[in-house]
Design brief:
Blueprint (H helix, E strand, L loop, with lengths): L1 E3 L8 H12 L3 E6 L5 E6 L6 H11 L6 E4 L3 E6 L4 H15 L2 H4 L16 H8 L12 E13 L3 E8 L2 E8 L8 E13 L2 E9 L2 E4 L3 E6 L1
Parallel strand pairs: 1-2, 10-12
Antiparallel strand pairs: 2-3, 3-5, 4-5, 6-7, 6-9, 7-8, 8-11, 9-10, 9-12, 11-12
Helix pairs in contact: 2-3
Length: 223
């Protein structure tokens, strides 16, 4: 996916590309016009599509398209003349067609299954927060069914929820989501402490952008 608009700001193209990638599970590039008149693009990718290698292949196939590029497998950037944007889009989509199959384009979320109610507590949260997580060693991600008891918008851009989850009513917030949820959902989540203005309440849950509070706060993903 390639997106450009003259009104885009160069400072946010990476954020937008990341959100496009998360929403549609496709390698995504977003461009803005720089002060020098050139288009500056930032891309985010999915597993199975090495973004920097894709740009390198484009530069070899069509040397005139890219002025410069760099990055790594999951994030990369490039600069080009606006007149070359259609050629870049066509070339990137050609590489994607060659490298990505149906399995790679099917979004999957691996979880550790349901979290038992007795582990929704601060000692568990602190034990998890004491570790350093990263690529290849990701923090535990749990998954369970939940009933949506209440939902409303906060600041016109976040979904505030009250869920019946793991045997208890829990408050939640799904950051960046405005669409309402059905009465029952399946959530992937991580637990974390509910901290606000220097105070710490039990825990909360965040799901797919959701953070749930009331007893433990959870955070995770809705599917």
């Amino acid at each position: 996916m390639v997106l450009f608009d003259p009104g885009f700001h160069e400072g946010v193209v990476g954020i937008v590309a990341g959100r496009m990638k998360d929403r549609w599970h496709r390698p995504s590039f977003v461009f803005a016009r720089g002060t020098d008149g050139l288009l500056k693009g930032s891309g985010r990718s999915i597993t199975g599509f090495h973004l920097r290698d894709a740009l390198d292949l484009i530069s070899k196939r069509e040397p005139e398209v890219l002025l410069r590029f760099g990055g790594h497998a999951m994030a990369a950037g490039c600069t080009l003349h606006e007149a070359n944007l259609p050629a870049f889009t066509r070339s990137l989509q050609q590489v994607a067609a060659e490298w990505l199959d149906a399995a790679a384009l099917a979004q999957r979320l691996w979880t550790d299954g349901a979290l038992q109610p007795e582990w929704f507590d601060l000692p568990t949260v602190r034990a998890l927060e004491s570790h350093v997580w990263g690529s290849g060693f990701e923090a535990p991600l749990f998954c369970d069914e939940a009933q949506v008891l209440q939902q409303r918008l906060v600041a016109d851009k976040h979904l505030k929820l009250r869920l019946q989850l793991a045997g208890a009513a829990r408050e939640a917030i799904w950051f960046g989501r405005t669409e309402p949820l059905p009465a029952r959902v399946r959530l992937a989540f991580r637990i974390g402490a509910d901290r606000f203005q220097g105070l710490e309440r039990d825990t909360a849950v965040r799901a797919g952008g959701i953070r749930v509070t009331a007893g433990p706060r959870l955070r995770g993903c809705y599917s």
